[in-house]
Write a structure and sequence with these properties.
The complex is a heterodimer of chains A (about 350) and B (about 500). By secondary structure, chain A is an alpha/beta fold. Chain A is built from 14 helices and 10 strands. In chain A, strands 1, 2, 3, 4, 5, 6, 7, 8, 9 and 10 form a 10-stranded mixed beta sheet that branches. Chain B is an all-alpha fold and about 500 residues long. Chain B is built from 21 helices and no strands. Chain B is globular, with a radius of gyration of 23 Å. The two termini of chain B are about 30 Å apart. Classes of the chains: A alpha/beta (about 350), B mainly alpha (about 500). Chains A and B meet through helix 1, strand 2, helix 3, strand 7 and helix 9 of A and helix 1, helix 9, helix 10, helix 13 and helix 16 of B.
Chain lengths: ~350, ~500
């Protein structure tokens, strides 16, 4: 029996050795491989980094792990001794957590001059670089409202009227980032002392709160594949485009619409992780991610808007999208100060 | 014999847990958490849903366990496969299947969570109790009947005491799974229901409150020790000599045939309906299923499952044999090795992340750290599967062999191994299943350089558009059929081996 345990032990040790040697690519000479940490929704075109590799000789290894919240939590725990070199996917609702943990090193890409002031305002220290924007908005099932001869809701206020009783499904503000964005939209609209009453009314009006966006959109919403029961949902301003692009059978009429006055602005950032051994190469990657090649790939692969002014946005993307002129927003430091207290209060109102 | 497994548990479980607790434990956070309403609600819900889920799972599983243990009939292997497959399935798949099956009024309710727990865990009861039940000497039952004992009395005085250790362990395992249930609670219950495990996850990951999460983790561990202790008491084993290779009879007589058939059909249907529901939703997704992505995630899933299964079965068996051979310290050893079941997987995942972050111990970014984490969960199961059988091997046999001059190695090869083979196969299968189905908290560790199949499915489901969802459901169907096929194959191989022996 001793023999067996000896064998088992040596197998383990062997595995350990081979595992570490796999990873020993951090030597200074030879071609550099950068690890790009990202959330699960980071899905650029296949081969998108080939151009980058051809230009710089640097290969990019994308490692996806969990949603944006998980990603930031892990990176914050490993701050200073990161699992990768560059991180993609902190949004403005999570930004404070990332900045507080001091996980990034500052860098100013030359691409900044092609970006609007509005996406740069949160980050005077340039710890992170804006890479895309999007909006979380009320979406509705056009067919349902036509059939029932009701006008779809256009404002947040409308959602508490009895016309729309039991029609709305939203993802939880605690476990979903669009859920949090929608909650923040209500805070922006009704004020820090007004949202409580609004949510009490929503509850009385039969809002269904589910765990994540997937369930809200794909299972409960009537306008998407799940063919659920509820014709109003919290999703993105780009969701109608996605519905058309992935429609089966193909169509050129969007089955869903967006209420632009209900939108909350999401800005996503990428940053260089403090502790990387390849800072210079990481800076090149940030330039690439915020440059026109990569930025032009974003709309149809990830359904977000590029931040680089010269990026091309295909017509098939914009045709079905109505972006708000002014999206609702709350400064990230106000979110940081109040988030925990707000969410505690929110959950007692909604799940009482 | 216990050095390798002990070292393994120390390195991959005890140290990471200590590191994370040390980083995050604080008295203030403890006080805060205990007084929060969210915690109290979660604790209460965890307790009552665990109790109810466990009782109902055992109640649903016992009839079919009886049928499978005592009779031979056509389609028996298929039935076994149908019952076992759900345990292999990712929660995302089961979640969407159950949503399709259950009436609207049951969505996002405690009943939906409990239904999912029953569906998942019937396999645990069947697979753990059946081997024991089928080894009860039929002569004992015949004798009881001949002496005039009723069926109920025979069950109470003969069958039940003999299967009690296995049943005790099976219920413990089910209770632990339900207690720490993660995916089912989040998907089927919605945000209004939380268990302690989901609270730990939400606090540490979503809210960034590590201190609060650790505090709940400590409370959860205390609870679990309580559950485990009481269950061990309940299932105190009475080892009895077992007989090997008993031929199970075909059902005889009209009443018996009807009973066997209806139990088998009803249970088979429970396994089949979710498959049909998923297949029905997959209509147009098949054209894209056999893409390169899919094949590579299938390969990753298989590699993880095989690695986890080998580690867990090897180390678990070593511990079980150590306990079986010297019974003096067995109680303590058993308790220690149950630790993986008590420590929240989220906690271990976070611990591993910050413990193994310096070379040469930078394991957090290796592919094998995920199957290692899976095997931590599976080891206690393996021990409990192997232990009762190992303990039932008569010492006389070994002594006789020793007298006849055979060494330790010969004894293992000729006595222990053949007798253990059946349960080793079960242990292998169950630990592979744990790895395949694990999509809860240890997915936190997974780095998706190469995605596992459950992760692919979850990602497809999380994007809008019909074709993506259809593909996800097609993959789920594939997963379902693959699982059923694998179990069926394993059963067939085992059956032919047993016969030729």
């Amino acid at each position: 029996m001793k023999k067996i345990s000896a064998i088992a032990l040596s197998v383990l040790l062997l595995a350990a050795c081979s595992g570490t040697s796999d990873n020993g690519s951090s030597t200074s000479d030879g071609p550099v491989t950068l690890t790009l940490l990202a959330h699960d929704s980071f899905t650029p075109s296949e081969g998108i980094f080939d151009a980058f590799t051809a230009e710089t000789g640097i290969t990019v290894n994308v490692v996806r792990s969990g949603d944006a919240g998980e990603l930031v939590t892990k990176a914050a725990l490993a701050a200073g001794n990161p699992e990768g070199d560059v991180l993609w996917g902190v949004d403005n609702t999570l930004l404070s957590r990332a900045l507080d943990s001091n996980m990034f090193v500052s860098y100013q890409t030359p691409n900044l001059e092609f970006m609007d002031e509005s996406v740069l305002r949160n980050i005077p220290g340039h710890e992170v670089t804006p890479v895309d924007t999007g909006d979380v908005c009320i979406n509705y099932d056009i067919a349902w409202f036509t059939e029932n001869n009701i006008a779809p809701p256009m404002t947040l206020d409308a959602l508490i009227s009895s016309t729309y009783a039991n029609l709305l499904v939203v993802p939880s503000a605690i476990t979903s980032s669009p859920g949090l964005a929608f909650f923040l939209a209500t805070v922006a609209e009704f004020g820090e002392d007004g949202w409580q009453d609004y949510w009490k009314s929503l509850r009385e009006n039969g809002v269904l709160v589910v765990d994540g966006w997937t369930q809200a959109y794909s299972t409960e919403f009537s306008g998407s594949s799940g063919k659920g029961e509820r014709p109003i949902v919290v999703s993105y301003s780009s969701s109608p485009s996605a519905e058309v692009l992935f429609a089966d059978p193909p169509t050129d009429i969007a089955p869903t619409g967006v209420a632009p006055l209900t939108c909350f602005e999401q800005i996503e950032y990428a940053g260089i992780l403090r502790g990387t051994e390849h800072k210079a190469e990481a800076q090149l990657l940030i330039d690439y991610l915020s440059g026109t090649t990569f930025q032009s790939d974003l709309p149809l692969t990830q359904f977000v808007f590029p931040v680089h002014r010269n990026a091309t946005i295909p017509d098939s993307f914009t045709r079905y999208i109505s972006r708000p002129e002014r999206a609702l927003t709350i400064e990230y430091n106000v979110i940081a100060e109040n988030r925990t207290a707000w969410l505690d209060e929110w959950s007692t109102i909604v799940f009482k | 014999m216990v050095i390798a497994p002990a070292l393994f548990l120390l390195v991959f479980l005890a140290i990471p847990t200590a590191v994370i607790v040390q980083r995050g434990a604080s008295v203030d956070a403890f006080a805060d958490v205990m007084s929060s309403e969210g915690f109290r609600k979660a604790a209460w819900f965890t307790l009552w849903q665990t109790t109810l889920s466990t009782v109902l799972t055992v109640a649903c599983a016992l009839p079919v366990t009886f049928v499978l243990a005592r009779f031979s009939f056509q389609g028996k292997r298929l039935l076994l496969a149908l019952i076992t497959a759900p345990f292999l399935l990712p929660t995302v798949v089961v979640g969407s299947a159950l949503f399709a099956l259950l009436p609207e009024s049951m969505h996002y309710t405690a009943s939906a969570i409990i239904a999912a727990h029953i569906f998942f865990n019937m396999a645990v009861v069947v697979r753990l109790v059946m081997p024991r039940w089928s080894q009860i000497d039929p002569e004992l039952i015949h004798a009881a009947h001949t002496l005039g004992a009723s069926t109920v009395r025979t069950f109470r005085t003969i069958t039940f005491p003999l299967i009690r250790p296995a049943l005790g362990f099976a219920s413990t395992a089910v209770a632990l799974f339900c207690f720490t249930s993660f995916g089912a609670v989040r998907i089927l219950g919605g945000p209004a229901y939380s268990t302690l495990e989901t609270e730990i996850y939400v606090r540490s990951v979503q809210l960034g409150d590590l201190n609060g999460a650790i505090a709940i983790g400590i409370v959860q561990a205390i609870f679990l020790i309580g559950v485990l202790y009481s269950m061990t008491k309940l299932g105190r084993r009475h080892t009895s000599p077992l007989t090997v290779n008993i031929q199970t009879p075909n059902p005889t007589g009209f009443a018996q045939k009807i009973a066997v058939a209806s139990i088998a059909l009803a249970t088979g249907l429970i396994g089949l309906l979710p498959l049909l529901a998923v297949a029905w939703k997959s209509n147009s997704g098949w054209s894209q299923v056999f893409s390169r992505d899919t094949m590579s995630s299938l390969a990753v899933s298989a590699r993880f499952a095989i690695t986890a299964s080998i580690i867990a079965t090897t180390l678990g068996t070593l511990i079980a044999l150590a306990i079986a051979y010297k019974s003096s310290s067995s109680q303590l050893l058993e308790t220690i090795t149950s630790l993986p079941l008590m420590i929240s997987a989220v906690t271990v995942g976070l611990g591993i992340l910050i413990t193994f972050d310096q070379s040469p111990f930078e394991f957090r970014s290796t592919w094998w750290i995920t199957p290692v984490a899976h095997s931590l969960i599976a080891i206690p199961l393996v021990i409990r599967i192997v232990l009762p059988v190992a303990q039932a091997i008569p010492q006389d046999l070994r002594d006789a062999a020793a007298t006849l001059g055979s060494g330790a190695k010969d004894q293992w090869l000729r006595i222990d191994f053949p007798l253990l083979r059946r349960c080793l196969a079960t242990a292998c299968a169950l630990s592979a299943a744990v790895s395949l189905g694990e999509f809860g908290a240890t997915s936190f560790l997974t780095r998706q350089t190469n995605e596992t199949l459950p992760v692919s499915i979850a990602r497809l489901l999380s994007r809008p558009g019909d074709t993506q969802h259809a593909k996800a459901f097609a993959l789920s169907t594939l997963f379902f059929v693959f699982s059923i096929g694998a179990v069926y194959l394993a059963e067939t191989v085992r059956a032919t081996r047993t016969k030729t022996h």
